[in-house]
Amino acid sequence: MRLTPASRLSLQQSPDFLADDELLEVTPKHLRLRKRHLTEVDQSRARRLTESVAAGADQRG
To answer: Where are the domains of the chain?
Structure first.
């Protein structure tokens, strides 16, 4: 198995790589991409909540 080395991104480049479920952590020395919901349980809860909000918006208008 081959692993791709980590890419060094600037603060301006980082938002282009962020998915909807990720955050950018900025420290004086590092920029880190983090998952908004770390555990699978939190991820599934967030997904269900997003789906129920979207379904409610569809019913309203």
So the answer is: 15-60
Q: What percent of the chain has pLDDT over 70?
A: 92
Contact indicator for 24, 32 with CB cutoff of 8 Å: yes
Give residue 59's pLDDT. Answer: 64
The pTM (predicted TM-score) of the whole model is 0.52
Closest CA to 25 of 46, 4, 45, 15: 15
> How confident is the model at residue 60, as a pLDDT?
61
Collapsed DSSP state (helix, strand, coil) of residue 12:
coil
Answer for the pair 42, 49: CB distance below 8 angstroms, yes or no. no
What 3-state DSSP class applies to 50? helix
The Cα 41–Cα 44 span in angstroms is 5
Helix (H) or strand (E) holding 42: helix 40-60
